Amino acid sequence: MARALLTKKIIEICQKKYSCINDKDFPKRILFSYPFSEMLKPNTKKQIEEFQENKQKDYEL
Known about the structure:
Elements: H1 2-18, H2 44-60
């Protein structure tokens, strides 16, 4: 759901600010999805560790 809302917002901004209409007018974008532990249950330490681990994997790409 969050990805859909983010994509919708990016499209709206590009249409208003840059007059994007066709596919080629929009910027390229890549959205990564990480399998984090349950976000609705507070466990900040574990979530930070998972984020750092996945961030390191991105640098290895």
